[in-house]
Amino acid sequence: MLRKRSMCWVQARQRALHNTKISQLKGHILKTPIPKKKKMASIMVVTDTGDERTPLLRDSQPEYSGGGTVYSSPPSAEESRPMNSNNPKQRLVSLDVFRGLTVALMILVDDAGKAFPSINHAPWFGLTLADFVMPFFLFGVGVSVGIVFKNVENRLATTKKVILRFVKLFLLGVILQGGYFHGRDHLTYGIDVGRIRLMGVLQRIAIGYLLASTMEIWLVSNTVVNSTVAFMKRYSFQIGAAIMLGLLYIVLLYCLYVPNWAFDVSSLSIILPTSVGANTQTVHCGLRGSLEPPCNAVGFIDRFLLGEQHLYQRPVYRRTKECSVNSPDYGPLPPNSPAWCLAPFDPEGILSSLMAAITCFVGLHYGHILVHCKGHMQRVIFWFISSLPLLIFGVPYSKPLYSLSYMFITAGASAVLLTIIYFIVDIKCLRKPTAMFQWMGMNALIVYALAACDIFPAALQGFYWRSPENNLVNLSEVLLQSLFHSQKWGTLAFVMVEILFWGAVAGFLHMKRIYIKF
User: Fold this and answer.
1) Among candidates 218, 147, 214, which has minimal Cα distance to 363?
2) Strands, E, within 18-104: which ranges?
3) pTM of the full predicted structure?
4) Is 293 a member of any domain?
5) Which residues contact 454 (CB under 8 A, 6 or more apart)?
6) Low-confidence winner among 154-163, 189-198, 410-419, 430-439 (lowest mean pLDDT)
7) Which structural domain, as residue segments, surrounds residue 408?
């Protein structure tokens, strides 16, 4: 009996000690102050430890450090979840869709523009669907630069990488658009080095990328972004540099004296009309501030620095009423046409590329908003607020000159389009309807090179039956024209099939996790 009572006393003592410890622990927890949640600002700084920033939603594939083919592991289950606005390692799917849509638009206007001149580039002044393609590319480059170079620890090493990529992209543009490849319906290749075209689409993109990346690496202050004023202060040097670049363009365009100039007609790779007499044609200028085709400062600088033999030999102003009886399409020269109708002019020239680079800076600003704003709708609101002033700028619109008004309205349209795609794809997560454009955007460079530069169609035309005209490309287009009983609508259907084909190719590369980047 005594032993049983002692055991009961021990057990009771143990329970008492256990309850005392629990009470002390509860008291300690209750006395510990709970930190209050701080109210988040509408703009925040996202930090990173690497030299270069990983684009949003790119955790399923590595950052490309150079050229070549990149293989990556299959996407994880996290990739299919809705995007977390505060996660800097996620990929911005809407930017891929935007880029892929731009490539598809380029294929459409290049291949269907002959059948529908209204969607082709405006002959000189004006704005058509084709005139939005280049600004879309440049704007997308700016947004990407704003995402990639958020924090840079080693500025010199990063600048070397940027310069190397600029050189590779520029040289690729010279190879693709310098005249070496003669395009569709021409089973030849090769170019006289003395007449190679030096500027082009990829060259302009390379220049914009170089200037925007250099600004993002070197012209960002250490201001902590916790308000709109701090946001503007952090990037004030970039804004100032963009304004100075725009002022330089305006001063040269309107103040540079353009003298009379002459060009050699016999050196042009076109069929000359019988009305052209002497081999040398003189264009009379002797003025300043002209925006017309013959006497503008953009063409004068290109002729002076590059030489007329290295310019684009079939400029768009040959489709004007002064130079074509089929205007707004190419055609024979009308009677008493001016001499400058036969002169070369590069729509991607040096001076116009400086203004085009400002489109990259506008995209860079939108990339900054994407990085610093914490929520989806805040980004959308800031993007729309920034877009509206760009859309109300006045005329004249001139894509060959890349006029100030053209830069503003196309950059504003680029921003509005990206905002809409961002709302649909990254906020509402409606990604299946845009999957093809996403695939094309993830391999935009290879699709552009093979499709938009006509390398693949020209190579395919090399296999023909008895006559070069009997090839798969031409026969497919003729078949669709017969089915639609219309040359125009058959051509449009052929181009749509072509876009679907390249979407399938890009989808196959995405399925194999192959991403080709230069």
Assistant:
1) 147
2) 69-71
3) 0.81
4) no
5) 181, 183, 184
6) 189-198
7) 69-254+350-516
